[in-house]
Here is the input.
Amino acid sequence: MEIVFIGVGEAFDQNLPNCSALVLAEGGQGAKSILLDCGFTVPFALWRTMLKEPDLPGPLTLDAVWISHFHGDHFFGLPALLLRFYEEGRTETLHLLGQEGMEKTVLAAMDLAYPGTRAKFAFSLEFHEISPGAPLSLLGLSLSAAHSEHPRPNLSLRLEDANASIFYSGDGRPTDATLELARDAHLIIHESFSLEPDTAGHGTVPGSIEFARRAGVPELALVHIRRDVRAEHMQDIRQAMDQAQGLIVHLPEPGDRLRV
Here is the structure.
């Protein structure tokens, strides 16, 4: 399994695309690709990244998109993504996955952004709504979810193929349920908004490190760090990473790739 970081920024970072990762996994019938979250700046970064790397599949081959929750920096990029698929002649079904209300919310956003256009699509949208405690098998992959603590309901995701498993937090503070979901995965990708010891509704850099330790996971990627924290406190972030003994901690940039 390989993870390509499309964006690592929070909602309003002027330098970094919204937090999003492309997962290349081994499905039941060959390689599959799933995009984790699609905020308003993600489609442009996705095309830029996938076209720049010759060994990556083309954007039109994307199999699925996972949406963790309905904040704009995590799903408002879907209308632009879908319309570009239409303009470039996509014909293959696209799977859209997320929590209850996914289909209604995504179609409403599409009709608001580009009224009437989805009727012209030559590809179909297949929606899959996931609930905690009810794993889903799709494309030869296993997906399980749990609620984090966030102002809007957010589902953290565990994604597994035949060889590896990753945990993607979406947004929000860890909960007992997300800890159990992450346990013994190969990699955690966790929203780490601040350095504060306790930030309501969000993860922190120290909290994400402790979360990964408690989950028994060997590698952690810190993403979605508040723009001023990343700009003004990089030394503190690096110090926390260096002190995470027994844990490999990554601070990815857009375009970085990890294999697990």
